[in-house]
Amino acid sequence: MCTPKWFVFAAFCLAPGLGLAATPQIPARDYDVGTPATDAQMKAWDIIVGPEGRNLPDGSGTPVAGKAIYDQQCAACHGDAGQGGTGPRLVGGIGSLATAKPIKDVGSYWPYATTLFDYIRRAMPFSNPQSLTNDQVYAVSAYILKMNGIIPDDAVMDRRTLPMVEMPNRNGFVSMIGASVVTGK
Amino acid sequence: MTVINPRRGPRRRHVLEGLAAGAVLVPSARATEAPPAIPSWMQAQGADVNAHPYGQPAAFEAEVVRERMKSRTLTAGASFTPLQHLHGTITPNGLFYERDHGGVPTIGPAAYRLLVDGMVDRPMIFTLSDLKRLPAVSARHFMECSGNSGTEWTKPTGRTVQETHGLLSCSEWTGTKLEIVLGIAGVKPGAGWCVAEGGDAAALDRSIPLEHALKIGAMLAYAQNGEALRPEQGYPVRLVLPGFEGNTNIKWLRHLELRRGPAMSKEETAYYTELLPDGKAEQFNFVMRAKSVITYPSGSQKLDGTGFYEISGLAWSGSGRIKAVDVSVDGGKTWQPATLQGPIEPICLTRFRLPWRWNGGSAVLQSRAVDETGYVQPTLKSLVGQYGLHAHYHNNAIQSWQVETSGDVINVHA
């Protein structure tokens, strides 16, 4: 098979833990309040990326391009090797989760690579969120994945490849939906 | 008949006494010094009417404030409610606990917009006045960060109940129900989740299972205890999900997106998930399980001699009403039922009380809540048996306060 080993089929990787839930019956309301949103408004507003890759933008980036951005815009807080500082550590925890000193970081704990793109785009760099271009977010995400040994140096991250990255802890979560009693009101 | 100006004599005496004692004219609290002396505040006009157009607490209550936890930045962190100083069940707005990930944004009412889109028939944008035109509801509910008591898993750490349990507050919330807004947009079949996103520098977002959210009366709240939300509580609009962990009650709400499944945002994968000893983690543990804590006497307080005290505390459950609270003064060997202050409302703080005589000996005070589902608040030992030491979130264990023979109260694991 020609797919590199850090790729898995999207259908397979999205099956566990997706937490499909029923659509409740909601009575229609005709209050004539609110304004219909246009496609342009929704597009400009929406920065939510799902694990299936929905709403990942055009553009791409590699670990090599990402290192330059990281060194300049991230290393001051996350450490030059991702070891942490003012911001949390980004590498080093793989294999530690079941030990007495678990380290929960992007490499060891995060189940989806899409979350990395989504979070960096919405919240980083800390002092200047939503200032990076989509290419820069792809690149710096790629560099963090590479620092964790999850993708190779030359991997290109884009809307197609990012959702297919197999994170080490992809199957590490058990959904507790339905486990809690909700009595309602 | 001699008319005596009732003020003159005593006033002079008061001044002299004060000077003789070399003290400032601060009235003593000792009952013996009350009448016949006339206190100074009865002998002069007080402060002007409406001196503070927005009323302030008494100057003597200056220590009753939130406390910041140490964090790596000034804008991503938390502040804790001083539960040891509060009475009843409602948290004053200025003391409601705070957890921010990107600071507190300033959003004017005119600039506020909420987008509802995704799997809906009619994507809609609402202004603040739109939301205020819709039918409103009010309800009293507690809110608790699932990281509350997160420092207490391995050893007693917090010195006060503020530090151990202060990521807990309770308000009367007013707003429009989520189901009304979703009814306007029309939810498409297949949409089981709603991603709620905040308009702060963290754009913090959480995925909410729709069915649960509607069942618990999810609300888009714009008011808290009668006034507009405070900025640090999400002004102008926040999501209120009664009984769900605090982090899901998205502040500065800017976007609701209906989806088939969850978005798997950072806050619902990397955080707010409970790591178990085998390396697996529980995810989407939304509901705050029944919990209680004694707020008086509590950590860092000191009993002023033997005799009568009324033990008092708070109990709550994200699953519904509190059914009973038992109190132990001997570290859990024996339990007595506490009196619950009514009305007991679902998913709301409930105040409990128990009369107690301190005989001067060492005592360990504990409380144990039972909710209407029959769930009993666990001991720390049984919770650790179930979750290990690295779950961090959802520590609802029984809290122990040790009363030492000196009267000092300290946080212990018993």
UniProtKB/TrEMBL annotation, chain A:
Alphabetic keyword roster: Heme, Iron, Metal-binding, Signal
Signal sequence region: 1-21
Superkingdom, natural source: Bacteria
UniProt-listed Pfam families: Cytochrom_C
InterPro entries given in the database record: Cyt_c-like_dom (IPR009056), Cyt_c-like_dom_sf (IPR036909), Cytochrome_c-type_DH (IPR051459)
A Gene Ontology molecular function term of the record: metal ion binding
Transmembrane segments: none
Record domain Cytochrome c: where: 61-148
Listed PANTHER family: ALCOHOL DEHYDROGENASE CYTOCHROME C SUBUNIT (PTHR35008:SF8), BLL4482 PROTEIN-RELATED (PTHR35008)
Protein name (Swiss-Prot/TrEMBL): Cytochrome c domain-containing protein
Organism, scientific name: Rhodopila globiformis (Rhodopseudomonas globiformis)
Automatic annotation (TrEMBL), chain B:
UniProt organism field: Rhodopila globiformis
Superkingdom, taxonomy of origin: Bacteria
InterPro entries: Ig_E-set (IPR014756), MoCF_OxRdtse_dimer (IPR005066), Mopterin_OxRdtase_euk (IPR008335), OxRdtase_Mopterin-bd_dom (IPR000572), OxRdtase_Mopterin-bd_sf (IPR036374), Sulfite_DH_SoxC (IPR030835)
GO molecular function: heme binding; molybdenum ion binding; molybdopterin cofactor binding; sulfite oxidase activity
UniProt domain Oxidoreductase molybdopterin-binding: residue ranges: 101-263
RNA-binding as UniProt keyword: no
Alphabetical GO biological process terms: sulfur compound metabolic process
Gene3D superfamilies (UniProt xref): 2.60.40.650, Oxidoreductase, molybdopterin-binding domain
Protein name per the record: Sulfite dehydrogenase
Keywords per UniProt: Metal-binding, Molybdenum, Oxidoreductase
Coiled coil: none
SUPFAM superfamilies linked to this entry: E set domains, Oxidoreductase molybdopterin-binding domain
One of the Pfam families matching this protein, by short name: Oxidored_molyb
Cofactor(s) it depends on: Mo-molybdopterin
Domain Moybdenum cofactor oxidoreductase dimerisation: 287-399
Keyword Ubl conjugation found: no
